[in-house]
Amino acid sequence: EDRNLVTFVTDKLDQYKNAFENHFTHMADFDFGVPIAQSEYGLEHNNNPIERHNGDIKQRYKVMRNFKSYETAAAFLNLRRTIYNHVRPHQSLGHTPGEEAGIDLDLAKNRLLDLIETCATQQ
Predict the structure, then answer these.
(1) 5 three-state secondary structure
(2) N vs C: which end of the chain shows fewer Cβ within 10 Å?
(3) Which pLDDT value is given to residue 55?
(4) From CA 18, how far away is CA 81, in angstroms rounded?
(5) Ramachandran class of 102: left when φ > 0, alpha when ψ lies in -120 to 50, beta otherwise
């Protein structure tokens, strides 16, 4: 079957290679050992933004002393995603990624509290 595969790009961390071989071999090509500054090597994007995002998450869960279960980890990551996309303005954009994508939730100055109150009234 001839199809375009997604390219899975990673640095030299062996765990990524193992995960790819176990889960993604039929749906993606693998480019192993690419440095963080990928655009210097002819690739379209750098992975600096996701490395920064992963660092933020790691910083937070180290303080929390890890997660007690998969469910608490999933709940934490869902909350982080919501805060990242709709509460905290992106430094270079000047607004949230959600707003950049055309999703305007019309939140008040205390965006997190307003989002919580809006969700609570809709349930």
Answers:
(1) coil
(2) N
(3) 85
(4) 26
(5) left
Helices (H), 64-100: 70-82, 97-100
**DSSP strand E in 18-120: where?**
28-32
Query: What does pTM read for this prediction?
Result: 0.59
Measured over the CA atoms of residue 49, residue 110, residue 65 and residue 79, the dihedral's sign is: negative
**Span 16-60, pLDDT tens digits:** 778 878 887 777 777 766 666 666 767 676 777 777 888 888 887
Please give the Cα distance from 29 to 7 (Å, whole number): 5
If asked whether residues 34 and 71 sit together in one domain, one would say no
Choose among 15, 50, 7, 11: nearest CA to 33.
11
Q: Are residues 117 and 76 in the same domain?
A: yes
Domain count within the chain: 2
Q: Is residue 58 assigned to a domain? A: no
Same domain, 75 and 117: yes
Give residue 71's domain range: 67-121
Domain assignment of residue 25, yes or no: yes
